[in-house]
Automatic annotation (TrEMBL):
<dbReference type="InterPro" id="IPR014729">
    <property type="entry name" value="Rossmann-like_a/b/a_fold"/>
</dbReference>
<dbReference type="Pfam" id="PF01012">
    <property type="entry name" value="ETF"/>
</dbReference>
<dbReference type="InterPro" id="IPR012255">
    <property type="entry name" value="ETF_b"/>
</dbReference>
<protein>
    <recommendedName>
        <fullName>Electron transfer flavoprotein small subunit</fullName>
    </recommendedName>
</protein>
<dbReference type="InterPro" id="IPR014730">
    <property type="entry name" value="ETF_a/b_N"/>
</dbReference>
<feature type="domain" description="Electron transfer flavoprotein alpha/beta-subunit N-terminal">
    <location>
        <begin position="22"/>
        <end position="212"/>
    </location>
</feature>
<dbReference type="GO" id="GO:0009055">
    <property type="term" value="F:electron transfer activity"/>
</dbReference>
<comment type="similarity">
    <text>Belongs to the ETF beta-subunit/FixA family.</text>
</comment>
<dbReference type="InterPro" id="IPR033948">
    <property type="entry name" value="ETF_beta_N"/>
</dbReference>
<dbReference type="InterPro" id="IPR000049">
    <property type="entry name" value="ET-Flavoprotein_bsu_CS"/>
</dbReference>
Length: 261
């Protein structure tokens, strides 16, 4: 079973601030992590390999610092890692990102492709479906449970009001939710191996054989004009005293605001 997992290095959003002038994320000094649901995707891929054999290959697109995320993935148990890194890839939207990843994946053998449901820095949930379209394979999104039956998967998919069960043949792309599993912590031995013994293969645009006009900012049909934080004007009010007094004050405020009669 050959499994490919696409991950993304993202800023730890609990630390992110927005520049009031440029309206862009301030990334300097902000710690980076593997996108959480990408870790769920990787964990599931490793579990499948442990049960059925095969190989887990992890891929990311980004600057040189994204190698750190791939090292962590190797420490978790991935077998191979590829970093797609080139100035031509910079500024890519989801469509251009999917095209770049697909070009790399087409050079590899695979039965399954995993992605996280969505990245916490963009929240688009578009790269997985667009990648499946580029690869020409079926996709199942919002996956919370997987069972393998021969060359098919029985997949439980989360919906807003429940779930649905889908049977799909491989090769297929799946996007993982946090309900799928609990990612493991790497052992000291695996961390040592990931940083001292394993290789992260860096792949450029020319090595991919991809037209620079079709990827990165030049190949992106969409643009992010600005990023802002929502401004709220809500003000809370705390009632003190015994329970009866607090309830009376609360009811009075609700009546004053015409929320109750």
């Amino acid at each position: 079973m050959n499994i490919i997992v696409c991950i993304k290095q993202v800023p730890d959003t609990s630390e992110v601030k927005i520049d009031p002038v440029t309206k862009t994320l301030i990334r300097e000094g902000v710690p980076s992590i593997i996108n959480p649901e990408d870790k769920n995707a990787l964990e599931e891929a490793i579990r499948i390999r442990e049960r059925y054999g095969g190989k887990v290959t992890v891929i990311t697109m980004g600057p040189q610092q994204a190698e750190e995320a791939l090292r962590e993935a190797l420490a978790m148990g991935a077998d191979e890692a590829y970093l797609l890194s080139d100035k031509a890839f910079a500024g890519a939207d989801t469509c251009a990102t999917a095209k770049t990843l697909a070009t790399m994946i087409k050079k590899l053998e695979y039965d399954l492709v995993f992605c996280g449901r969505q990245a916490i820095d963009g929240d688009t949930a578009q790269v997985g479906p667009q990648l499946a379209e580029q690869l020409g394979i079926p996709q199942v999104t919002y996956v919370k449970e997987i069972k393998i039956e021969g060359d098919s998967l029985i997949v439980k998919r989360t919906l807003e009001d429940g779930y649905e069960v889908i049977k799909v043949k491989m090769p297929v792309l799946l996007t993982a939710t946090k309900e799928l599993n609990t990612p493991r912590y790497p052992s000291i031995k695996r961390i040592f191996e990931a940083y001292r013994e394993k290789e992260v293969k860096i792949v450029t645009a020319s090595e991919l054989g991809i037209d620079p006009q079709e990827v990165g900012l030049k190949g992106s049909p969409t643009r992010v004009i600005a990023t802002t934080t929502p401004e709220t004007e809500r003000a809370g009010e705390i009632f003190t005293g015994n329970v009866k007094e607090c309830v009376q004050n609360l009811v009075q405020r609700l009546v004053e605001k015409h929320l109750i009669l």
